[in-house]
Amino acid sequence: MTVHAVEIPELWMPHPLRVNPYLPALREESETWARAMGMLGGEGGPPARRPIWTPAQFHAMTVDQLTAWTLPDASLAGLRLNHRFNIWALAWDDYFASAFKQTGDLPAARTFTTRLHAFLRPESGARLPEPTNAVERGIADLQGQLFPPRLAHWRHEFNRALVRYVDAGVEELANSRGGRIPHLIEYAPFRRESFAAHTAPYSVELATGARIPEQIRRSRTVRALLDAFMDYMGLANDIASYEREVNEEHDVNNLVLVLGTSLGIPLHDAVPAALNLVNSRMRDFEHLRRTELPPVVERAGLDEDERAELDTWLRGACGFLSGIHAWYTGAPRYAPADVPAFQE
Fold this sequence. Notes:
The protein is 64% helix and 1% strand. With 344 residues, the protein is an all-alpha fold. The two termini are 18 Å apart.
């Protein structure tokens, strides 16, 4: 992997990539929802709507692969639903970057985000405003799909995570405008919010049909395991997207810059330091999963079915991490122009 002409070792991933067998079906309909929401331009798109992507930009993201790689056990219906959420999250990210980060228009970003809050309502059947752009249209449509009965318990937490996600975009823009690089101590929990990582346990539950048993959900060990799970996603993304974020978008909210500034070290040293930190979070996840979690399960007295459900969820979490690792290291969205994209 190369970050700004600095060669570094690869991100560590102990879990093999597993691909959902429904990927071909997902690929066939990949554009359908994005076009319907007005996110995608080109032939067949609504002419009155301003699209976020051209077809070439959309296909370069390989969102269908991201979804099928991270959720190898999902049903076709679950895969389609999470695919649409992934498209929406990337649509918000790219729209926010082009409309506000590139212009530095912080007041307009705040207005856009405040209005978006009205679409992130945890109440079932809440009346939403009339959407005025593709981002609002997408989340309004998703609100009617994301919480079937077996996932209804996620409605409040999921929408709260999305509020933190869009609010973090405004904070990132304020940091960039003011030249304020976050400090390392505050950055990891902030990155969980700015990456929408708090929604990832929902995606695993959607794919596997399994939940972390309530008896241990709030234990220190499970909280630490979930933190490591979320940290790997967002912090690894900082390494994969460094060139685009820092050199193209002039963003200061990136782990490489955070480490360089907080530790007072040059880029040449900050890049491998960032990679070591990301790999250490994967080691933490593995240690907690293999060593610290079994005694917690034993003390909680989980029965055979509850242990099986936990194992299923953990297998799904491992699959999620291996899939996102494959996407970071192979998708054209992150690959340098002279490096061929990963082919499954």
